[in-house]
Amino acid sequence: MCITCGCSGDGHHLHGHEGHDHDHSADHHHEHHDQDSRVITLEQDILHKNQLLAERNRGFFEARGITALNLVSSPGSGKTSILERTLTDLYPAQPCAVIEGDQQTSCDADRIKATGAPVVQINTGKGCHLDAEMVHAAVKHVKPAQDSLLFIENVGNLVCPAMFDLGESARVIIISVTEGDDKPLKYPDMFHSANICLINKIDLLPYVNFNVDKMIGYARQVSHIDRFIQVSATTGQGMEEWYAWLKEQVNVVQGVG
Amino acid sequence: MHELSIAMSIVDIARDAVEKAGAREVEHIELEIGQLAGIELPALDFAWSEAVRDSVLARATREIRHIPGEARCMECQTTFPIQALYESCPTCSSPFTDIIHGKELRVHALTVH
User: Fold this and answer.
1) In what helix (H) or strand (E) does residue A228 lie, and over which residues does it extend?
2) I need a surface site. Which of A13, A228, A230, A255 has the fewest CB within 10 A?
3) Which is it for the CA torsion B45, B46, B47, B50, positive or negative?
């Protein structure tokens, strides 16, 4: 007799072997697999753990009225320069905090620190993206104030960060005119996951072969982005429109207007 | 190389399942990976051997079920197969589509002992 279920061994049944061992007699035809093997059906999302932590971050941000933005781009598109200019213009009238993600060094955090805004640097080491757990830990260090704008500058990479929700309110993709205008088609996953697109280094447009309309057309094919803002972190062109968008996000999160 | 993070997440999921079941290790693992999930299979293979070393998956065989991309047009409701995110509706040419299959990234089942 099977000591798990008490059956006589002549019927068909299926059960697991949790926490017990037993010998099957020769006439015992269970559907137990060889050597106690059994199949566990999980149907578990591989990114489930990241998703849970991201939602936990999101809940914390909501409760504190924090507008969290995930800034993604290729290396060298000007994420840090846009942030420096933004903080110089908005902070401290608008409370802000920054989480900087890079593989190595604290160069970016040092640049942000000079603006006076609280910043914490995450070095991902060999990692190519930030994940919700890293942000969870970084938030404890940077302690963003109530009702603040939290900028999370992801690792410069248009592939890997696309899959990892950090708990942000919106995802901002930055492309610069010194890159190819076909980037949205080449890196569709990242564009697909973004809410707004900044087109940076717009002051260099006369000198480069970049077609803004073409780029926006490609981005519309692969994403639901409905807002494209042309900016220059160097000259300040278009930055007011970006700040107006930031203000809209802050108002939405805080339930104003 | 986010495939390394993915492989390590799979190891975590397998370890939890093995512990919960009071088993020792995984014999076989079945994954479901959509064609639009952003996973490069050669990169996953490359990361796999490192990620599973000394884990409950070290001796496991791996089976991957590929799930083809499928989208539904938000304008005319046609469903159609897609290979890439930028494909528009074959019936009305609208670029506004919802992806209904192809983004899957799941551990379907484990055989443990």
Assistant:
1) strand A228-230
2) A255
3) positive
What does the block give as tokens for A228?
Answer: 């494209």
* Residue A15, pLDDT score: 41
A23, with CB counted inside 10 A (0-12, 13-18, 19+), is exposed
**Per CATH, is B2-112 categorized as 3.30.2320.80?**
yes
Q: What is the pLDDT of residues A3-32, one digit of tens each?
A: 333 344 443 344 444 434 344 433 444 444
- Side-chain-side CA neighbours of A228 within 13 Å: the count stands at 19
- List helix spans (H) across chain A: 48-63, 79-90, 107-113, 132-142, 183-186, 188-192, 212-222, 239-254
Which part of chain A is CATH 3.40.50.300?
Answer: 48-254
Query: Which of A4, A15, A40, A182 should one mutate to test binding to chain B, selecting the residue with the greatest count of B CBs within 10 A?
Result: A40
What is the pLDDT averaged over residues B19-34?
Answer: 96
Domain A48-254: which topology?
Rossmann fold (3.40.50)
Could you tell me how far CA A156 lies from the centroid of its own chain? 12
DSSP 8-class letter at A225: -
Percentage of chain B exceeding pLDDT 90:
82
ipTM: 0.85
Subunit contact A127:B5, Cβ cutoff 8 A: yes
Residues in chain B: 113
3-state helix, strand, coil in chain A (%, to 5): 35, 20, 45
Distance from CA of B38 to the nearest CA of A (A): 7
Q: Which parts of chain A register pLDDT below 70?
A: 1-35, 257
Our CA angle for B67, B69, B70, nearest 5°, is 120
